[in-house]
Amino acid sequence: MDNKEEHIVALKVMRLTRPTLYSNPVVSCDPRDLPGTTLSAAPDVTRLPHLPHLQLGEMLLLPQSFGSIYLGETFSCYLSVHNHSTGATACELTVRAELQTGSQRLTLTPTAGADRPASLAPAASRDHLIQHEVKDTGAHILVCAINYTTEAGVNMFFRKFFKFEVLKPLDVKTKLYNGEYDENAVFSDEVCLEAQIQNVTPSAICMETVTLEPSPLFDAVDLNTSAEGDGSVFGASGWLGPQDSRQYLFCLRPRPELRLASAKQLKGVTNMGKLDITWRTNLGERGRLQTSQLQRMAPTYGDLRLTIEDIPSVVALDQTFTFTCRVHNASDRTLALALRLETPSAGLVWRGVSGRPLGRLAAGASATVPLTLTARRLGLQPVTGVRLLDAALNRPYDYENLAQVFVAAPAPAERQPETAAC
Length: 422
Known about the structure:
Layout: E1 9-15, E2 20-23, H1 38-41, E3 47-48, E4 51-55, E5 58-61, E6 69-70, E7 74-83, E8 90-100, E9 105-108, E10 118-120, E11 125-133, E12 138-149, E13 155-167, E14 170-178, E15 191-199, E16 205-214, E17 218-222, E18 239-240, E19 245-254, H2 263-267, E20 271-281, E21 286-290, E22 294-295, E23 304-310, E24 314-316, E25 320-329, E26 335-341, E27 348-351, E28 356-361, E29 366-375, E30 379-383, E31 386-390, E32 395-399, E33 403-408
Parallel strand pairs: 6-13, 24-33
Antiparallel strand pairs: 1-7, 2-5, 3-4, 7-11, 8-9, 8-10, 8-12, 12-13, 14-15, 15-19, 16-18, 16-20, 17-19, 20-21, 20-22, 23-25, 25-29, 26-28, 26-31, 27-29, 30-33, 31-32
């Protein structure tokens, strides 16, 4: 580039965005104050000339600055290249745009043909439109490069930089819960997902869809519809105000063909899928956000899993009660199991034979085991002290805090009426 030459081409960049809503501030005072009725008598620009009693309330305001752009929205930009000379033509003119983020550089494609050399006559303009879906937060730099040749054959080049910040529109918090045994299936291994979505923008947004894309081993069930199936549990309106939040619930169920054949494989799966969220602003601009892979803590029950099917929540003092456990073999071999009842908590006492064999349990199979306890102390008592022993490897599996039972005082017996002596 020859620095003695002056540029005959200028570049102007403008972001394309919708107008904002401007609320007209209401200024009033008591008639007995110093301004009197001056403020109330002043004309209001938001009122229609022939309808003075109709208050519009809000007006559309054209953008005065770059404004805010949020993750998931589409960044639209208008590039205008103008030849401001009076008689010189810019030859072999090319326009290139690049978006730099903290982690990568993206080459943006302007209007078709922008990167092909072309001539720009004096006082002529060449306009281009750039659109890009923003997928990263933080600082972004739009780099626009102009390259052309003067009529004298001198190569000219210059660049302009436009920096802007991309903000986070939604705050998404997720929790994953490993499910227990389901009596309607042999071994469910379900996972429940709770997603809290909060609007952190200064204006209301309209939530369109919140879906879960599960991992290949699971099917997703949306639990956010009403029991009658006639709509969302949040009602017909999808509006979410500033700083408001919603709780979404999903259930991940293993595919039917994998429940029995791949129980061990399901146990080690940690990737559960990702959320796909779409919304619109109050002026209809569409946004889309997709989370990364949601991770769960893999179950740590090893080759054996012990769950409680049914147990009373409240029992009386000195009452003997029976509850049912289910033992599932999550290994790939047949286990010969024995049941040992260790010393439980001081509030509960085991009833039955300790060390009795449970027989052989095939891989992927499950069996029910009834157990009996007697309540000896008032209050909330934990059920502990269950040990399963693998006879082949002499490996013990201890289970503590299986459940809690509240021991209450027995109801007073009804007094019998006294019989008078003859």
